[in-house]
Design goal:
Strand content: 5-15%
Distance between the termini: 41 Å
Radius of gyration: 19 Å
CATH class: Alpha Beta
Largest sheet: 6 strands, mixed
Length: 316
């Protein structure tokens, strides 16, 4: 993995989109290209016009490299003091502060220390890397002001297939260990099951395992999201799964490239998640993040008939 550095302008940034998602009012990012290289990631599409890609001479859609800004904590420290209206800040929203390239600069710890040293801030951590466990001693000092989330996209039974889709993320079992250890230490946790891929993690049985785990670790909220059909993610996943002999999973991924099939997959996923959460946990804790623009009119009506736990985003 080749790592490049860049200079970003922002430290703590207002994020209305993540506020609509009920995740945070502010965001922090430590770079523009994450070393976990998850195939479904929408960040390359979102940041494709960022100057850092021209600076390093790379396409935002190429693999094998990461871009970070090692000086991000310095700007965060200034912003954490300067901003008067404080609230929840997500670390991170487009990259991972504990990805391998960020670990080399200890960016997760430095960012946490820069924010939490100022009163009034709450941090929502989201990572796919078990390296965050090394920072739990710091987090314990501010335990009521930190929410810990590990992005868990399937049960450990699906590790073989998910390792092709999330090639440099920590194994799912290790991500679960993050939340188990957090809960054992009395730290705050939340569930982030995004995305639940068709043919891999969208069955009632898979969802059962995930929601039982959320209950086990005392998750304050449970966020769920379908795969984003835009960009190259579906095509990339289909290609790698098929090349490795996962024909069943590849066929399901290929199927949802059609709008009608994606709409039906999402409609079933909403229902399956609602049913399981009602049965095993607390439906009031569910936050199913849904952009409805690609739902068919019929499926939109179906979801709206029982949309408890659905967070409608974009134009509804």
């Amino acid at each position: 993995m080749k790592t490049y550095t860049t200079t970003l302008k922002s430290g703590i940034t207002r994020t209305k989109e993540f506020e609509k998602k009920r995740l945070a009012q502010y965001s922090i990012n430590v770079g523009t290209r994450c070393g976990h290289q998850c195939l479904y990631c929408s960040t390359p599409s979102l940041l494709r016009m960022h100057k850092s890609f021209k600076q390093v001479g790379k396409s935002p859609f190429a693999d094998g490299y990461a871009i970070i800004d090692p000086h991000t904590p310095e700007r965060i420290k200034l912003d954490a003091k300067k901003i008067r209206r404080r609230g929840v800040v997500q670390l991170c929203t487009t990259v991972d502060a504990w990805a391998p390239e960020a670990q080399k600069h200890n960016l997760g710890w430095k960012c946490l220390e820069a924010i939490l040293s100022q009163r009034g801030w709450t941090v929502r951590i989201l990572t796919k890397n078990a390296a965050v466990l090394r920072d739990f001693d710091l987090i314990e000092k501010y335990k009521h002001r930190v929410l810990i989330g590990a992005s868990i996209t399937a049960s450990p039974d699906k590790q073989d297939v998910m390792s092709l889709i999330e090639p440099y993320a920590s194994p799912i079992e290790e991500r679960m260990t993050i939340l188990r250890e957090a809960h054992a230490r009395g730290l705050r946790t939340y569930g982030m099951f995004c995305p639940l891929l068709p043919g891999i993690a969208d069955s009632p049985q898979e969802i059962d395992r995930l929601i039982l785990f959320a209950s086990e670790v005392g998750a304050e909220e449970i966020f769920v999201e379908p795969v984003n059909p835009r960009g190259q993610g579906l095509k990339l996943m289909q290609k790698v799964l098929k090349s490795k002999g996962y024909y069943f999973e590849a066929a399901h991924i290929e199927s949802v490239r059609a709008m009608e099939n994606w709409s039906w997959y999402v409609t079933k996923l909403v229902k399956n998640v609602q049913d399981v959460v009602r049965s095993l946990y607390d439906i009031q804790k569910l936050r199913f993040l849904l952009y409805p623009s690609r739902l068919t009119p019929q499926d939109r009506v179906r979801v709206k008939k029982d949309d408890i736990g659905v967070v409608w985003l974009g134009k509804c």
